[in-house]
């Protein structure tokens, strides 16, 4: 009877655990008793060591592996295997799992989750070979396994062989310390395949450079805001408000960018949220940068008010687009808005420069050119002379914001209250 068969399997598993001198897993016992098609293995806690001690490791896997290898019906019905909660499997455990996955008996296994384990290069090599032999596996998750470029190159070689060889439709390799070059190889190898490849949280060096570059910008923005606030303290009210908006926008941009690149390894949801904040902050800075110039050189002018209102409307429209639009043209829509807003002052630029003087004009134009000059690197998103293009983009942004900052400090705020010219 089924009850007798289940009891036989349970007794067999318990006997194996006793032989290997490990504590039986409640997850395995539940799987054996209920006869499901999904097995999730979690770490348990040894009463002797306390509740915080993870104990499910390579040795704990052996009694289950022996049972699955010997009992064809168990391995044959298994469709989903999730060991991400075990938090204790190393190379030998990964090799053992690979042997099970590659077995002809595992004909229904479609999903394997090894996230958080430490398979090492040896384990990854065995798993990659098992994927080749498996005829059913469609999803493989290996987040935070820390196998680096050595493991990434093994997966790249697998993907290059084509989907008819590996059969995968979903491959998650997030947070594995894979370098830019190997990530590029993985992406190129997966082109033309119906494969969802996830690589968020890799390229550690790139993200460190990105975070440090705009972290420096944040420090400069904080210090600069103090000096700019002091300079505007005795100026008319409209100048104080404009300077305050500019300083807020400048600091928000560098805070958002620094946090976005610092939190690169905290998962796709966190990366998406801070990525939205990062891109929204660009709209904020563009609109905020216009405030002191238009308020000082064209105070109270109807045209100045219309231009400012239109800029802020475009900024908030861009923020909504960034937050909610998911279409394929999102990047180009954002870039068009950035550039359109940035150069929307063309109609009043000549008069503004005439009132600002040649030195201030050079800083103003230089800032715009720096921002615009960084766009090709932002779009390219690869490397130039070994330096990440996104870091180069950050350097252009730093140069642009510094140019505009000193233009506001030296040639804009000191002239507050001296003009009352209507813009035609």
How would you portray this structure in words?
By secondary structure, this protein is of the alpha/beta class. It folds into two domains: 2-198, Ribonuclease Inhibitor (Leucine-rich repeat, LRR (right-handed beta-alpha superhelix)); 207-415, Rhodopsin 7-helix transmembrane proteins (Rhopdopsin 7-helix transmembrane proteins). The protein is built from 18 helices and eight strands. It has helices at 2-20, 26-34, 58-70, 72-77, 91-101, 120-133, 148-160, 163-166, 180-190, 204-232, 237-262, 268-297, 302-324, 330-342, 346-356, 358-373, 375-380, 389-412; strands spanning 38-42, 80-85, 111-113, 139-141, 170-172, 196-198, 383-384, 387-388. Strands 1-2-3-4-5-6 form a six-stranded parallel β-sheet. β5 (170-172), α9 and β6 form a beta-alpha-beta unit. α11 (237-262) runs antiparallel to α12. The protein is elongated and about 95 Å long. The termini are far apart. 38% of the residues are buried. The model is unreliable at 49-53 (pLDDT under 50).
CATH architecture of the largest domain: Up-down Bundle
CATH fold topology of the largest domain: Rhopdopsin 7-helix transmembrane proteins
The CATH superfamily of the largest domain bears the name Rhodopsin 7-helix transmembrane proteins
Biggest sheet: strands, sense, closure? 6 strands, parallel
SSE arrangement, N to C: HHEHHEHEHEHHEHEHHHHHHHHEEH
Morphology: elongated
CATH uppermost class of the largest domain: Mainly Alpha
Quaternary structure classification: single chain
Count structural domains.
2
Low-confidence stretches: 49-53
Transmembrane segments: 211-231, 243-264, 270-295, 307-326, 362-379, 391-413
Binding site for Zn(2+): 261, 390, 394
Membrane topology: Multi-pass membrane protein
Keywords: Membrane, Metal-binding, Transmembrane, Transmembrane helix, Zinc
């Amino acid at each position: 009877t089924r009850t007798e068969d289940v009891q036989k399997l349970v007794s067999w598993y318990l006997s194996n655990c006793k032989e290997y001198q490990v504590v039986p897993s409640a997850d395995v016992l539940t799987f054996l008793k209920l006869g499901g098609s999904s097995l999730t293995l979690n770490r348990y806690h040894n009463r002797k060591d306390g509740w915080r001690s993870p104990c499910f490791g390579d040795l704990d896997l052996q009694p289950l592996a022996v049972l699955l290898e010997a009992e064809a019906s168990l391995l044959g019905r298994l469709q989903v295997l999730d060991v991400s909660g075990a938090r204790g499997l190393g190379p030998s455990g990964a090799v053992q799992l690979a042997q099970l996955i590659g077995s002809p008996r595992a004909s229904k296994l479609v999903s394997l989750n090894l996230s958080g384990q430490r398979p090492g290069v040896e384990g990854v090599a065995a798993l990659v070979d098992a994927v080749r032999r498996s005829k059913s596996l469609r999803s493989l998750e290996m987040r935070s396994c820390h196998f680096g470029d050595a493991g990434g190159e093994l997966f790249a070689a697998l993907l290059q062989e084509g989907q008819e060889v590996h059969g995968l439709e979903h491959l998650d390799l997030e947070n594995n310390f894979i370098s830019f070059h190997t990530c590029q190889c993985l992406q190129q190898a997966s082109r033309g395949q119906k494969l969802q490849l996830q690589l968020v949280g890799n390229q550690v060096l790139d993200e460190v450079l990105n975070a440090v570059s705009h972290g420096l910008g944040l420090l400069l923005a904080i210090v600069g805001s103090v000096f700019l606030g002091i300079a505007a303290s005795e100026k008319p009210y409209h100048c104080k408000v404009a300077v305050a908006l500019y300083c807020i926008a400048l600091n928000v941009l560098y805070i958002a960018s620094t946090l976005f690149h610092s939190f690169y390894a905290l998962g796709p949801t966190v990366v998406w949220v801070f990525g939205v904040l990062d891109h929204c902050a660009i709209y904020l800075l563009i609109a905020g940068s216009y405030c002191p110039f238009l308020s000082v050189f064209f105070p109270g002018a109807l045209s100045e008010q219309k231009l400012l209102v239109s800029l802020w409307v475009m900024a908030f429209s861009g923020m909504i687009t960034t937050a909610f639009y998911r279409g394929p043209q999102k990047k180009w829509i954002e870039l068009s808005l950035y550039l359109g807003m940035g150069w929307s002052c063309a109609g009043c630029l000549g008069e503004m420069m005439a009132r600002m003087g040649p030195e201030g004009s050079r800083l103003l134009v230089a800032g715009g050119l720096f921002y615009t000059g960084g766009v090709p690197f932002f779009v390219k998103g690869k490397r130039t002379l070994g330096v990440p293009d996104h870091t180069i983009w950050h350097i252009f942004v730093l140069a642009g914001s510094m140019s505009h900052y000193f233009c506001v400090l030296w040639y804009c705020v000191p002239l507050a209250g001296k003009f009352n010219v209507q813009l035609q």
